[in-house]
User: What shape does this take?
Amino acid sequence: MSHVKAGGTAKNTRDSVGQRLGVKLFGGQKVKVGQVIVRQVGLTKRAGKGTSLSRNYTIHAAKDGVVKFQTRRVRLFTGKSVARTEVTVE
Assistant: This one.
């Protein structure tokens, strides 16, 4: 017979790895075509001129240049106007 009482099972042993989201290149930094500028879930930052938006909402550089972040007013479907960050490459 065992001399240790039953410990039960651990239910919180599983964990997933981080998705490495966020801004990869900041304002004023040089960028080349195809480089990732922002990795995001959903459209938290908008893609402006000189950038492209992929299917998973990652913003890539569409041309060589310098990254620039600026705030832009965007009208929602309800008619409300909210501030959103727009990423451009100049």
About this structure: The domain at 22-89 is CATH 2.40.50.100 (OB fold (Dihydrolipoamide Acetyltransferase, E2P)). The chain has one domain: 22-89. The two ends are 75 Å apart (CA to CA).
